[in-house]
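Q&A log
Question type: sequence-to-structure
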Amino acid sequence: MDIRRITPDYAVSPQIAPEDVPELVAAGFRTVVCNRPDSEIPMELSSEVMRITVEAAGLTFVDNPVTHPTMTPERIAAQAEAMEKGPVLAYCASGTRSSILWSLAQAGRMPTDEILSATARAGYDLSALRPRLDLARG
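Response status: OK
Response body:
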């Protein structure tokens, strides 16, 4: 598993599997957010399988599947709400969508440079988001 911390309370990862959940518990995560639609993955990694496994381990599971076209204000708000139940591990195919959601949820709350620096330290170059992040700052 490739956990990349963006903040002390928010990390992202490529797709996780049920056998990764004990490591998430040991790492101190309290919430797991799935940002990957079931249509992208095999049944054994579906959000329902992951929900059952994560909740059986005593963690909170949030299903917030997105694709780039469905990254709506409502999905961003759902991610922001899930982030309040931290520490959070959010996963998708590569961690990029989960990083983008975090970034958009921080827009207007944090300076754009700090948002982009945090994601870059985690290995995600989201500099193309700068205009959208700046717009949210007003």
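Response note: Strands lie at 4-7, 10-14, 31-34, 60-63, 88-92.
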